[in-house]
Each structure stands twice: as structure tokens, then as C-alpha cells.
Design goal:
Blueprint lengths: L9 H9 L4 H17 L15 H11 L5 H17 L6 H7 L15 H8 L4 H13 L3 H6 L5 E2 L4 E4 L10 E4 L2 H24 L1 H9 L5 E7 L2 E7 L1 H6 L8 H15 L22 H12 L5 H8 L9 H5 L2 H11 L13 H46 L2 H5 L1
Antiparallel strand pairs: 1-2, 2-3, 4-5
Length: 406
């Protein structure tokens, strides 16, 4: 499939080189600024600052045009434009920016979170690649981007530990998390097939080979004789040596493969989010819901919430204890291992952790009642023994001496 190249304008590219942001964020900024000029019907943005326009009126027009967009998208666009204008030394009243910026942006979604039974149903239709990726997301709490950039160097199979380095972490701070024995078994199977998948994908995709060349990887061919014919065969040895990601996929391809999987499963898994404010329709059981499932199921246990937030990379909830947790992997691993049963897809029979907790609560109540009954019985025995001793003393006092001698 040929990708439509994004138009690059000098005024936008100059701006992007002046601000320190990740390449992925640069592409978002570029997209929003292109969209800004498109809404203003400006064909050549490079001449935008040459005409002495009313920039405040332009932003007002764009802010009105995007009112039906998802709230976070509205805020993202306005924030991007504000930074763009500031770099060009365009002075706009701060009160105006406050009018255009939403005070409390929120995501409008109709997400569905998997139960173990539902996820088992979906994974029955998945190939090993998607099965391993889905279980990895659902067992570690990693974000999709973090999982796809993860190299084997950062995955400790022996200790079932994943280190997310600062350069790929959303928070730009290193952290670690863990995965279950069940997930480890699937990962082991996938890693045995990983080179085969990589070889096939590079052989099939011209675009993939072009991307490898851009990364500086040399594409070589070897001549192979089959019968009387000589054919050129792609030498993947250097590619495999340089491509060390656990899941060597691009984000768009991973999402596309997941969506195709949901379509194969049929209803309710291929049901789309029908929110009219979403620019692009998406499935209710999208890949990020696996991370949400991880959070909700761990939070439904008695696990320390600070431990769960650290493992999931929710830095804002941790304040001063973040660095402390970095030095305590054994402590957090004990927490994870103690409660990881709630993340299992195949190894646990109960369909809902809440059912298990209710069952345990009922058992605890019965045990407490039995203990109370036992204490009551002990007390009754104690009273009866006391009464018996008192009766013996009374008998001795009222019985004549000569009767006692007999």
C-alpha cells in the first residue's frame, strides 16, 4: 500500500526544529498545523506571516470550526497553534487563549474492557504474533508504543521483568514492570518464531525494506541456484542482527492486524465506538483497552495502589516515592506475583475477581461465626464446670459426718 506523503512547509519545519519534542510528537504537530491552514483555506503557509493578517481572528475561526472535535483534540490543536504563534513572536491576549482552550478536556469514548473469557475467545482466532502482543499488553500494563519499541535487551525472561527505558517511556523516566508465568510461556513460543516472521515481512514488503535502508541497514542479496535457474534471495542476516525489537511491527500495522482479528471474531468484538464526535471511528475493544484491563483488575485487588501506578507508568500519582520504587524491584515483584492471578487468561477458572473476593468474604464470615460459636461453647463448659464444683461443696456441707465415714 502506497502511503500519501505529508506536505512539508518551510515555516512549519523551521518551527519544529526549534522545539525539543519527540519525532512522533513532531508528526502530530505537523498534522495539526497543516489542518490549521487547511481550515483557513491557505494554500501556501510559507507566506502566512508576510501579509499582516489578523491572527486573533484566524484562531477564533479555527476554534469555532473544531468545536465538534473530541475535547482533547481541541486542546491539542489550540496548544500547538499557541506555541507556533509564540515562536513567531505574534502577541495575542492571554485572555483570548483561555477562551479558546478547554479548562477540563476529557476523552469521550465507549471503551469495553475484556473479561478473561472474552479475551480467550478473541485469542482463539489470533496468530502467535498477535496473541503474544495482546497478552504482553494485558500482563505488563505497557502502552502499545512502549511494547513495540521494546528490545530483547530490556526483557528479563528469567525474572519475568520488563524495564522500560526513559527514551521510550511516555513519562521520559525509566520504570519496570513484570509479566506472569502464563505470559512467559506464550512469549517463549513467539521468540522462537520471531526471526521467521521478520524474514517473511521483509521479503514481502518493499516499504519495510526502504525503512531499513533509512535506518542505515544494508540490504544484501545472495544468488541461489535452483535447478538450472539462478535467483536472487534476500540476505536477512544483517537485518535480524540490527532489528532487536521483541515485536518488530509498526504501530499502524499492529492496530490493523488487531482490527482484522476483531472482525474475524464478529459481534460484540467488532462493534465500533459510535461516538459522533470522534473524527476516526475505532473499535470499542481497541488495543489500549488491554492496558486499561490491567489497571482495573489489579486495582480491584488489595494490591498497593502506589505499586500499581508505578508499574503502569502513572507518575503523577506518585509524587516523591517514584525514585524510591526504582530501587525496590523485589518489593514490587512480590506485589505483582501475589496479585497477578487476576491477570491470567487461561490459568484461572473464576470468570471475575469480584466473585472470588465475594466467595472469600463469605468464607471469612462463616469462619468468624464458627469461632464465635466455639467461644460460646467454651464459655458454657466453663460455667457448667463451675456449677459442678459448687454443687460438690454444698453436698459436703449438708451431708452428716458419720454418713461421710461410711
Amino acid at each position: 500500500m502506497t502511503r500519501t506523503p505529508v506536505t512539508k512547509y518551510e515555516v512549519i519545519e523551521t518551527f519544529l526544529t526549534k522545539i525539543k519534542i519527540e519525532p512522533s510528537t513532531q508528526s502530530v504537530y505537523r498534522s495539526w498545523l497543516n489542518h490549521y491552514f487547511k481550515l483557513l483555506e491557505i494554500k501556501n503557509p510559507d507566506t502566512y506571516f508576510d501579509n499582516g493578517r489578523d491572527y486573533s481572528a484566524d484562531i477564533e475561526k479555527v476554534a469555532t470550526a473544531i468545536k465538534e472535535y473530541p475535547p482533547r483534540s481541541q486542546q491539542s490543536i489550540i496548544s500547538c497553534v499557541k506555541r507556533f504563534m509564540q515562536k513567531k513572536n505574534i502577541q495575542i491576549d492571554e485572555n483570548k487563549w483561555e477562551e479558546w482552550t478547554l479548562k477540563k478536556p476529557y476523552a469521550i469514548t465507549m471503551d469495553k474492557r475484556f473479561t478473561p473469557e472474552e479475551l480467550r475467545t478473541v485469542l482463539e482466532h489470533a496468530d502467535l504474533k498477535m496473541k503474544a502482543l495482546a497478552m504482553f499488553l494485558g500482563c505488563t500494563g505497557c502502552r502499545l508504543r512502549e511494547a513495540l519499541l521494546m528490545t530483547s535487551e530490556w526483557v528479563d525472561m528469567k525474572n519475568r521483568m520488563v524495564t522500560i527505558p526513559a527514551e521510550i517511556s511516555k513519562t521520559k523516566r525509566e520504570r519496570y514492570t513484570f509479566f506472569s508465568e502464563e505470559c512467559k510461556r506464550v512469549l517463549d513460543e513467539w521468540l522462537k518464531q520471531r526471526e521467521k516472521f521478520l524474514t517473511e515481512s521483509v521479503n514481502k514488503s518493499v516499504w519495510k525494506r526502504e525503512q531499513l535502508v533509512k535506518k542505515g541497514i544494508n540490504i544484501k542479496y545472495t544468488t541461489v541456484k535452483i535447478g538450472k535457474k539462478k535467483i536472487k534471495k534476500l540476505d536477512v542476516s544483517e537485518i535480524i542482527k540490527n532489528e532487536d525489537r521483541v515485536f518488530p511491527m509498526e504501530k499502524d500495522n499492529a492496530i490493523k492486524s488487531w482490527n482484522l482479528l476483531l472482525e474475524r471474531c464478529g459481534l460484540p468484538f467488532n462493534k465500533k465506538d459510535m461516538n459522533k464526535k470522534l473524527k476516526a471511528k475505532r473499535y470499542q475493544y481497541h488495543l489500549h483497552t488491554l492496558r486499561k484491563m490491567w489497571f482495573s483488575r489489579l486495582m480491584s485487588t488489595d494490591a498497593n495502589p502506589n505499586h500499581v501506578n508505578f508499574l503502569g507508568g502513572h507518575e503523577t500519582y506518585l509524587a516523591g516515592v517514584y525514585n524510591q520504587f526504582l530501587e525496590q524491584p523485589e518489593l514490587l515483584k512480590r506485589t505483582y506475583d501475589k496479585f497477578s492471578f487476576c491477570l491470567n487468561i487461561y490459568d484461572v477458572e473464576p470468570s471475575d475477581i469480584n466473585e472470588m473476593r465475594e466467595s472469600n468474604t463469605l468464607k471469612d464470615t462463616k469462619i468468624k461465626n464458627l469461632e464465635n460459636e466455639l467461644e460460646g461453647l467454651k464459655y458454657r463448659v466453663f460455667i457448667m464446670e463451675k456449677l459442678e464444683k459448687m454443687n460438690e461443696k454444698i453436698d459436703k456441707k449438708i451431708t452428716p459426718a458419720h454418713d461421710r465415714s461410711h
